[in-house]
Amino acid sequence: MSIDSMRPDNRGEASAFLAMRARLGMEHAPVRRIDPARIGRPPKTKPEPAVLSWLAPLNMLLLPNWRAVVKLVALKHRVSVQSILGMSRVYAVAAARQEAMFLLYTHCEPNFALIGRQFSNRDHTTTRHLIIKEAKARGVKLPPPPTGRPNTPRGAQC
Q: How far apart are CA 40 and CA 100, in angstroms?
């Protein structure tokens, strides 16, 4: 694409476009041409594959696996599972982690220590704070934690 071949009124825009491509290191990348007849039409889309087929349990009365809940939250927030389970304090990751902890508390095991152990061995008070914060943001009242020892065997996971 050369500036000389363009109309005089578009030369300034073209030179700015080429300068921006050079700054980004894209001067040799091909320029995508847009067909004027297709402007205003929705793009052709392919049907999406069944991404969440591994999440559908056979018995819907069973509690979900904690890893499946974390994977769903990672897909929703577009972050990796490792970053949610890690120690990152980036806002997007922290928000995803907070939602995952809340969902684990409400749908799996209401045990702060057990949930905290899954997320980089966090303290139960940290887990409790995040879950209460998420519940307030959603306007949900949390069920009280169970009294006494949980019915799960030692070392069991959600």
A: 39
- Determine, yes or no, domain membership for 12: yes
What DSSP designation does 5 have? T
Same domain, 7 and 71: no
Chain mean position to CA 76: 4
> Number of structural domains, the chain?
2
CA 53 to chain centre: 18
Mean pLDDT along residues 133-138: 92
Provide the domain limits for residue 91: 62-138
Q: CB–CB of 13/21 below 8 Å?
A: no
Question: Is there a single domain that holds both residue 86 and residue 18?
Answer: no
In residues, how long is the chain? Answer: 158
pLDDT digits (tens, 9 = 90+) for 80-134: 999 999 999 999 999 999 999 999 998 887 889 999 999 999 999 999 999 999 9
